[in-house]
Amino acid sequence: MKHWIKIALFLIIVTCLLSGLPAVLGFSAEDASMGIAGAKRSLQIAFVNVSGAENAGGNVSALLIQLNEAGSDLTMAEVAFSNSNYSEAVNQAHTCKALADSIASEAATMENQAGDRLSRVLPVLVGGFIGSVALIVVLALTWLWFKRHSTGRLLRSRPKVTV
Q1: DSSP for 87-126?
Q2: Do residues 87 and 147 lie in contact, with contact meaning Cβ atoms separated by under 8 Å?
Q3: Are 35 and 90 in contact (CB under 8 A)?
Q4: Cβ-proximal residues to 62 (8 Å cutoff; 6+ apart), any chain
Q5: Contact 104, 53 (CB under 8 A)
Q6: Residue pair 51/110 in contact by the 8 Å Cβ criterion
Q7: SS3 letters for 4-62?
Q8: pLDDT digit string (tens) for the chain, length 163 residues
Q9: Structural domain boundaries of the chain?
Q10: Mapping DSSP to helix (H, G, I), strand (E, B) and coil, where does residue 160 land?
Q11: Quick check: pTM over 0.90?
Q12: pLDDT at 22
């Protein structure tokens, strides 16, 4: 009876060790493929957010440099995947995804700040335009009044001609 318990315990330990072996040895092709797909999605989202921040008027030059670095990480992950180096592919994909998520967050913040800037500047621009139009109208009315007044006074005055 003790012998069967030892064998069962041995089989349980061996099964546990063998089930954890792929995690110790590295990642599977499926893990790497899923990691690369996730990194691609994150990179696309980051690109869209950077584009939106640029359209909102933000200075995105630093974000574009980081976006290029993330793209380079994704390329290295794809090369490692094609060389069957799945653990390196997963690591590079994870690096790309983390960087792309950071870029997307910064770009969204920058886009919101640019929108806030526009909402502060817009009333000033509208007020300046309305003020300019009002000034032109007042100047035109003043000119018309002086023209009529001075023309009437000039016509009423009769210069005397002496010979």
Answers
A1: HHHHHHHHHHHHHHHHHHHHHHHHHHHHHHHHHHHHHHHH
A2: no
A3: yes
A4: none
A5: no
A6: no
A7: HHHHHHHHHHHHHHHHHHHHHHCCCHHHHHHHHHHHHHHHHHHHHHHHHHHHCCCCCHH
A8: 566 666 655 657 756 555 544 444 467 889 989 999 999 999 999 999 999 988 888 888 999 999 999 999 999 999 999 998 999 999 999 999 999 999 999 998 888 887 666 677 778 888 888 999 999 999 999 998 888 888 777 777 776 777 7
A9: 18-121
A10: coil
A11: no
A12: 45
Looking up tokens 């909102």, which residue turns up? 56
Residue 153: its pLDDT value, please? Answer: 74
Does residue 76 contact residue 21 with C-beta atoms inside 8 Å? no
Short-list 62, 156, 69, 151, CA closest to 110: 62
CA atoms within 13 A on the CB side of 129: 6
Residue 50 near residue 64 (C-beta atoms within 8 A): yes
pLDDT of residue 9: 59
Kindly state the tokens that stand for 121.
Answer: 């500047």
Q: State the pLDDT at residue 23.
A: 47
Q: Do 79 and 98 touch, CB atoms closer than 8 A?
A: no
Q: Interior CA angle at 68 toward 63 and 69, to 5°?
A: 95
- The DSSP call for residue 84 is T
Q: For residues 163 and 146, give the distance between their C-alpha atoms in angstroms, rounded to a whole number.
A: 33
